[in-house]
Amino acid sequence: MAVGLVVVTVAVGLALHVTSVAPEILWSVKVRQAAAHHLPQLDDYISDDELRWTTWTRSVIHCADLCARDVTCLAFTATTVTSRGVECRGHCGLGPGSTLGNRANTRAYSLQVLTWLDKTCTKDSDCTHPKSVCFAGHCLCSPGFFYSHSRDECLAGELALCTTTVRDCTDADLKPLMVSYPGWYIFQHNLNSSVTSWAECVEWCSMDPACRTFEYNFSSSTCFLAHVTALQEASYWRAQDNDDINHYMKTCA
């Protein structure tokens, strides 16, 4: 089962997930050690400001991958042209102050470099970020701590106890981008749901502000939503005998 941010993943060693649920999920794309975030206010525009290069690519994901490989690329636009593919333009920066020109079928993205999340590891000491652990071969926040995209750190939730030295992530700050912990689950704290597919399970939790975590059993196609985290219910945090079940938790703004 995949580890890390779900949706579309092309990082080495991570499986590919594609879902068409909430737009924020669809367009927050994990690309190697970076995340591309959709900038809807700049859609259908292009700019020559701080333009580094222009090339044609097969897809938006390929365009994001090219930008992630270029250390000078901090933003990009992808214009879909039916006859040729996607025109990809990499920028050192792109924002509301940029000089813009109209270009239909264009989507704009900023690139956030992830300094440590999802890097491969063999032991906890390989993951040096505070509150991080080596989980299933990848550096993740300790179970129950929310990864913060803006701070690039692990934060406790609103109801976490004994975490006075950790800045909290409030429920209002939670994002429908999930981090997965394969083979683990929170015992006796899940609410059964009627959905049966993994994509629907992601969507249900994403749309429910009370949902902080969920589990999905791939063998039985069963979805369990929850309002608690492994940090809040540490005594109920259990390992499964196999990888049929995955625990997922939202991330923080």
TrEMBL record:
Keywords: Signal. It comes from the Eukaryota. Residues 169-252 form the Apple domain. Residues 1-15 form the signal peptide. InterPro entries: Pan_app. This is Apple domain-containing protein.
